[in-house]
Amino acid sequence: MDRAERLLSHVWMVRTFLKHAPEAEEDPELRDIHRALYDVMLALGGAAASGDAPRYFRLLTKKLPRLKAAVDTWRDLQPEVSGHMNFRMSVTSLETAVAELERVLAEFESLAEE
């Protein structure tokens, strides 16, 4: 669970970056992305705080499709919003975090089956 939380710190930082970007004020799709990222973090917060790994990973499994959809949308939208390095790196950061979260989730599920 600690590894997943460290990966989600990237999601949180990108969410904060997008939320406070002036471009977000003008683009409802961009607002939807940072809100989706927030929703995922909010859903996991209670289980993370209590150290309830089974609940945490159950919620992560439930929320992962929404997180992936937000990343896919951002990947497609980002070039239209800005070509600045910060925006490009935000896509890379989210893609990396999601790929690693999928690995962590698979490891947890594998251990749970044993």
Characterization of this structure:
The protein has 114 residues and is mainly α. It has one domain: Butyryl-CoA Dehydrogenase, subunit A, domain 3 (Up-down Bundle). The chain has helices at 2-20, 22-26, 28-50, 53-81, 85-113.
Blueprint of the fold:
Elements: H1 2-20, H2 22-26, H3 28-50, H4 53-81, H5 85-113
Helix pairs in contact: 1-3, 1-5, 3-4, 4-5
Q: Which stretches are poorly predicted, pLDDT < 50 over at least 5 residues?
A: none
What is the beta-strand fraction?
A: under 5%
Can you tell me the CATH class? Answer: Mainly Alpha
What CATH architecture label applies? Up-down Bundle
The fold-level CATH name is: Butyryl-CoA Dehydrogenase, subunit A, domain 3
- How many structurally independent domains? 1
Give the % helix: over 70%
What's the alpha carbon Rg, rounded to whole Å?
14 Å
Brief sketch in words of this structure:
With 114 residues, the chain is an all-alpha fold. The chain has helices spanning 2-20, 22-26, 28-50, 53-81, 85-113.
